[in-house]
Structures are given as structure tokens and as C-alpha cells.
Design brief:
This protein has about 575 residues and is an alpha/beta fold. The protein is about 40% helix and about 15% strand. Pfam families: Glycos_transf_2.
Length: about 575
């Protein structure tokens, strides 16, 4: 199923009044700080919403009184004392003053983009269910909401250390009354019910709207010490298992299953895809690879694109003359002798497409490259940041199926969406070709583009590892989308460069604040796998011995892998 995009303007004056309802946990310790941060952020929304806190857990009534909120203590609970979803939503539907209801988990900070976005959806659809992925951030202190810059400060922290959640982590739902006033007896705060909501919306043919690209919902990371069994109890305990009963014979959806996805409204018409083609003196001096490369873009079955050629030659005349004569619509940028990676960044700086891809002569796009990859974004309702593919060679003699299977199996992960990790580095070196990837442009620009201190191949791997550590979701097409040259035999010098850059890539990866804590003990494992692979590539005995020594050095530092409950 292909989802439909809906453009949202960031510049409207919000006038919509809504009701937000939530069921806080006991206001104790860190959870108490987190919930007060979240609730205060809701009070700062404009127009100020009606806020209802439900339940009798410690501190709920006192917090409602402190911030002038409505308080409803009488909700049904199960035998373990956990509030039940049907009672919560029924009470909210009965008691709310406003037609538009918003359920939010009590650890979610909302920002000023929330109500303007909802208002624009309300103007388009009489019925709907809005949901979206969240951003995860470590916040241990109370936020000073008297500081007029509190939201910008929070966004700065999010840019530095925030991670985007998976497609199945849904923490807010917006819908009009009387939708969802009759629900099963799900235990709140246990796995399953949020994905049931998506399936139920689809079952009722309600527009299910993914707002992940527009609404910044910030989840404050926390432990599960409020539960006797900690995290395991929330997702696999008795109450979670009881929730699963209601999911039998019922579709459990996520943000990628939405029928509509929200995108930023552009002030001027812009192309869907920007194709950035860097060139060097090699393409100018040796044959006709550049025209062949450009022609492969114009031969695409998908036509909503722009082409940006970044000329890395010292001389400006030859290349500009060719392009002006043969391809007058191409955007031409001259950047003398700065290198391919700098050319990527230069093209990225001027690109206008929602998506970007790169094409380095003599590589060529296969005719359906753009159509297939853009379709992936639409089929996943905007819940992707990257689409990969395999690639072929002119002779097709080189068999890359093994690498495709190894890479694709990791990407397939939970719900068919997963990321790229540091311990995949040997596979990444072998499989990745820059031209096979279609990126969401905003993500590449937001996080600084390519590192010009690295080689072309290392720079793309560094970018992938950076984006994946921040939660970027990806899928991998089995069919090739480009034709590339046969891989050149690896020389000793090239292998040594790969070794040096691999250490730099892994150092960069594991030093990022966005790498999950459970991954950090795996750093030495990533190094050992990489040096084991490098040693297998080389026949030079002294160099092989060097790599084996590095392997053993990191192997002895490897920590046992443990998962905390």
C-alpha cells in the first residue's frame, strides 16, 4: 500500500483548542522529574489545551492542583492495580471539553509544532488518527520553563544526543470524539495496545496519519524500576501477555503502516530528488563517461528530479562548455581540486530535493532506480531515512549475492526496518556503493554531511554509521539500481588505508553520544571482526601478522555481552 503525503506549513497561527489526557506513574524520583517536565511542556502549548490527569497514583492529584489541571481519579484497574485503557479513553471522551482528544504518555515533551500540525489535519479530515515516532533523549534534571529559550535549548540537546525511535514506539494519539471511546481492557504501560490502535484505525478505514517528520515528541529516557520485573515485565510479563490476547486475529500496526504521512510545506516548488554528480579531471580527459552517466539519469522512469554537477577540475572551460551545450537544465558548480568528498558536500549544500542521491562517473543508474527507491519511502509512509540496493557490473561476472544476503539480513530486523551498526564494518566496506543509496536530504544536512578528511568510501560509511546511531531507518532492495565497474584488486597500500580508516570509523562510532549503552561493550568485538577480515584479504606475511596482532589485542579486551532487564 502506498501512503499519500500531506504538506504542513510551519507558519500558521494556531487557534485550535484540544484536550490532552494522560495517566501518570507515581511521582517518585527520576520518574517524578520526567513527568513534571512533560506535563509542564503541555501547559506551554498555544492555545493552551485542557489537560486531564487520570488515576490515583502518588502525586497525580497534587500535580493537577499545582498546575491548574483537571483531575479524574475514578478509572478501572486490573488485579495488579494497573489502569485499563478502555476506562481511560471512555472517561476522557465523556469528560473532555473539546472535540479533539490527545492521549500522551506522561514522559513525552511536546513542542510548539504540535497544535499547528493537528489544526491543519483537522481542516482536511473530519476523522483521523494522528501518531508518530518519538525522539529519545537523556534528561535527568528539571527543565526551567521560565527560560524563554527552553525549547531551543532542548532542540540543541536533541541535535547533539537525541535518537529517533523505531517505527513501533508510539507515544501519542490524536483523534476526534467519539472515536476510540470503546476499547478492549488493555493494561496501560504494557506492550501491544499502541500497535492495536493503528490496526483498529486501519480496520475502520480512518485516515491513519504519520506525523513523525513534523511533530517533535521528545521521550525522556528512563528505567523500569517502577515495575518489580523492570523492562522485561513491561514487554513480556503477565500483563503484557494478557494484552497480546486482544491482538489475536487483529492487525498490530506501526507508523510505517499509516495511510497518510506529513511532510514540510515548501515555499516554492522543488524537485522530489536531487542527483549530485561529482566530476574529476579523469572524466574530462578520458572518454565520454560523464555524458553516459548524465544520460542514465534522464532515462529514468521517474522524472521529478534535478541534476547538480560539481566540477572538481582546475580548469572551468571544458566541463562548463560541454554541459551548457548538451545539458542546459543541469545546475553546474565549479569547485577546483577539493576532492570528491568535498564535492558531495558542495552539492548537498545547494540541493533542493526531498531526497538526494549521488552518482560518480563512470557509474550509471538503471532505468527504474529512482522510481523504485522513492516508492519505498511512500510504501513505508515516510518512516524511512535511507533506501539501499544491490548493484551490478557490466559483465555481471562479479557475484555480490553473498554480501547482499549478509547486509540485507541485518537490515530486515524487526518490522523490516533496522539500522547499520559498527560491527557490520567488513560487510559495509564490501557492499556499499554511494550511488545505490537514496537519502532523506534533511537528515544528511542536519548532521553535517560527509567528513572531508576521509576517503570517498570511508566518508560514506562514516555518514551511515552516524545516521544509524541516531535512529535512521532503512530498507534494502534486492534488485540492483546501478551499474558499477568491477571491483579493483586490493593492493597492500589500499588494504592498509582501509585498516587505518576502519579504526577511525569505529573510534568515531563508539564515541558518539547517540550510540546505545548496550552497544558500547561491543566496541572491541567490532575491532576484532574488522581485523580478522583484513587479515584474510592480504597475502603479505608481515602485514598479515600485524593485522593478526591487532585482532588478538582487541580480542583480549572484549567484554562478555549482557542485556540488562
Amino acid at each position: 500500500m502506498t501512503a499519500t503525503p500531506l504538506s504542513i506549513s510551519p507558519h500558521i497561527q494556531p487557534t485550535l483548542t484540544i484536550t490532552i489526557f494522560a495517566v501518570p506513574k507515581p511521582f517518585r524520583g527520576q520518574i517524578g522529574i520526567i513527568q513534571r517536565n512533560a506535563i509542564q511542556s503541555w501547559t506551554k502549548l498555544q492555545p493552551q489545551p485542557e489537560i486531564i490527569l487520570l488515576g490515583t497514583d502518588q502525586g497525580t492529584q497534587e500535580t493537577a492542583i499545582e498546575f491548574g489541571l483537571r483531575y479524574i481519579p475514578d478509572i478501572n484497574v486490573n488485579a495488579q492495580g494497573t489502569p485499563l485503557l478502555n476506562s481511560i479513553f471512555f472517561q476522557a471522551s465523556q469528560q473532555a471539553t473539546h472535540r479533539i482528544l490527545t492521549y500522551v504518555n506522561s514522559d513525552i515533551i511536546l513542542t510548539r509544532d504540535f497544535i499547528p500540525t493537528v489544526q491543519q489535519v483537522v481542516s482536511q479530515y473530519p476523522q483521523f488518527l494522528i501518531l508518530g515516532r518519538r525522539w529519545n533523549l537523556d534528561i535527568t534534571d528539571s527543565i526551567d520553563y521560565n527560560n524563554p529559550n527552553w525549547e531551543q535549548n532542548l532542540r540543541d540537546r536533541l541535535h547533539q544526543a537525541g535518537t529517533f525511535s523505531g517505527v513501533g514506539a508510539l507515544d501519542y494519539f490524536v483523534f476526534p470524539k467519539p472515536l476510540f471511546s470503546q476499547l478492549p481492557e488493555f493494561a496501560i504501560g504494557r506492550a501491544g495496545w499502541d500497535n492495536w490502535m493503528v490496526g483498529e484505525g486501519l480496520k475502520q478505514n480512518i485516515p491513519v496519519i504519520n506525523a513523525s517528520q513534523i511533530i517533535t515528541a521528545i521521550h525522556q529516557n528512563h528505567d523500569y524500576h517502577h515495575l518489580p520485573g523492570h523492562r522485561l515485565e513491561a514487554f513480556q510479563g503477565t500483563e503484557a501477555q494478557h494484552n497480546q490476547i486482544f491482538l489475536q486475529n487483529h492487525f498490530a500496526g506501526n507508523s510505517a503502516d499509516a495511510t497518510i504521512y506529513l511532510t514540510p510545506l515548501s515555499a516554492n516548488p522543488t524537485p522530489k530528488v536531487s542527483v549530485i554528480i561529482p566530476t574529476t579531471c579523469v572524466e574530462t580527459r578520458h572518454g565520454t563517461s560523464l555524458p553516459t552517466t548524465i544520460d542514465s539519469v534522464y532515462q529514468q522512469t521517474f522524472t521529478d528530479f534535478e541534476i547538480i554537477v560539481v566540477d572538481d577540475n582546475n580548469s572551468i572551460g571544458e566541463m562548463r562548455s560541454l554541459l551548457t551545450r548538451e545539458y542546459p537544465l543541469i545546475r553546474y558548480i565549479h569547485q577546483p581540486s577539493s576532492g570528491i568528498v568535498a564535492a558531495y558536500n558542495q552539492g548537498l549544500e545547494v540541493a533542493e530535493g526531498e531526497f538526494i542521491t549521488f552518482l560518480h562517473p563512470p557509474e550509471v543508474f538503471l532505468p527504474n532506480k529512482l522510481a523504485q527507491q522513492v516508492a519505498c519511502f511512500e510504501q513505508k509512509a515516510g518512516s524511512l531515512e535511507m533506501v539501499f540496493s544491490s548493484w551490478k557490473t557490466p559483465s555481471s561476472f562479479w557475484n555480490h549475492n553473498i554480501n547482499l544476503l549478509a547486509f540485507g539480513s541485518v537490515l530486515q530486523g524487526r518490522e523490516g526496518l533496522h539500522g547499520v551498526h559498527g560491527w557490520m564494518l567488513p560487510t559495509l566496506w564490501q557492499f556499499i556503493r554511494t550511488s545505490t543509496i537514496l537519502f532523506r536530504r534533511s537528515w544528511v544536512q542536519r548532521y553535517g554531511g560527509f567528513n572531508p578528511q576521509l576517503s570517498e568510501q570511508a566518508a560514506i560509511l562514516d555518514l551511515l554509521l552516524n545516521l544509524s546511531s541516531r535512529g535512521a531507518a532503512a530498507v534494502c532492495l534486492e534488485q540492483p539500481t546501478i551499474c558499477s565497474l568491477e571491483p579493483k584488486p586490493l593492493t597492500v597500500e589500499k588494504i592498509n588505508l582501509i585498516a587505518a580508516e576502519s579504526e577511525q570509523l569505529l573510534q568515531n562510532y563508539f564515541s558518539r553520544p547517540t550510540v546505545k549503552p548496550w552497544m558500547r561493550p561491543l566496541d572491541c568485538l567490532a575491532y576484532t571482526q574488522t581485523f580478522q577480515w583484513l587479515a584474510s584479504l592480504i597475502s603479505d606475511e608481515p602485514q598479515k601478522a600485524k593485522f593478526i596482532h591487532c585482532y588478538h589485542r582487541y580480542f583480549h579486551q572484549t567484554q562478555p555481552f549482557r542485556v540488562n532487564a
